Amino acid sequence: MTRQELIDSIKQYRPFNEQEEQDKSLILEWIMKNENAFSRDNGVAHMTASAWVVNKNRSKVLMVYHNIYNSWSWLGGHADGETDLLSVAVREVREEAGIHNVHPVSAEIFSMESLTVDGHVKKGKYVSSHLHLNITYLLEADPEEAVSIKADENSGVAWFTPEEALQKSTEPWFVERVYAKLIKKTKNTGVNKYEISAK
User: pLDDT by residue (tens digit) across 77-91?
Assistant: First the structure.
C-alpha cells in the first residue's frame, strides 16, 4: 500500500466514536504535513500499526506482556518507513508472538488511535515522550499454534477471553478507551461481515 493509498483508506474510514473521529483528523493531518511521519526520526509523533488478534469464533484474544509498559497488551510496532501498515501489523504479530499462521480478517482498517508514550530507556538509550499515531487491523490466528516470546520486547504470550484481556491489562486508559472498544467492535461487526469483505 502506498502512502496515498493509506491516506485514501483513512479518509474513507468511518469513525466508531468521538475518540476515533478526533484521532482520524489528527492522523490525517500529521501524515499530510510531515514527510517523515512514518519514521522514528520524527520524535514528536510517528505512525505505528497494531493488531487485534482473535481466534476463529472470536472467543479469545492474543496478547503479550510488554516489558516497557509492564502490562499485557495488544501486538504491534513502528512503521519504520513502511506505508503498508497492514503488512507491518502482520509482521509484528509473527515477530512478537512467534506464530506464522496469522492472516487479516479484512484489509480494511479496524480502528485508529492516538497513543501517548512516556519517556523510557530502550536498548540503553533514552527515548523522549511522544505520540504513536496508530492504525489497527483485525487479524485471525489459531490458539493451538505454539507461541514464543520476543525477549527484547516481551516476557509473555498468551490467549485470553475478552473479559480476561480487560482484567490483565494494567493500563486504565487502554482498558477503557482501546481494548473495551475493540471487543465491542468485534462483537458489533460480527464474523460474517468481515469474512465477506475479506473475499
Answer: 999 999 999 999 999
Task: Work out whether the CA dihedral 20, 22, 27, 28 comes out positive or negative.
Answer: positive
Which set of grid coordinates corresponds to residue 110? 479496524
Neighbouring residues of 3: CB distance < 8 A, sequence distance ≥ 6? 31, 38, 83
Q: How confident is the model at residue 189 (pLDDT cuts 50, 70, 90)?
A: low
Question: Quick one: cell of 55?
Answer: 481466534
- Residue 27 vs residue 194, higher pLDDT: 27
**What whole-number percentage of the chain has pLDDT above 90?**
89
46 strand-pairing partners: 132
Answer yes or no: are the C-beta atoms of 171 and 69 closer than 8 Å: yes
With the C-alpha atoms ordered 99, 183, 59, 55, is the resulting torsion angle positive or negative? negative
Q: Comparing C-alpha atoms, which of 193, 2, 32, 1 is closest to residue 110?
A: 193
Half-sphere exposure of 83 (CA within 13 A, CB side): 15
pTM beyond 0.90, yes or no: yes
Sequence-separated (6 or more) residues with CB below 8 Å from residue 129: 116, 117, 118, 119
- Give long-range contacts, CB 8 A cutoff, 24+ apart: 28-35: 30/133, 31/3, 31/6, 31/7, 31/133, 32/7
Q: Which of 38, 45, 49 is nearest to 93 (CA)?
A: 49
Distance (Å) of CA 18 to CA 14, 130, 178, 181: 11, 22, 12, 12
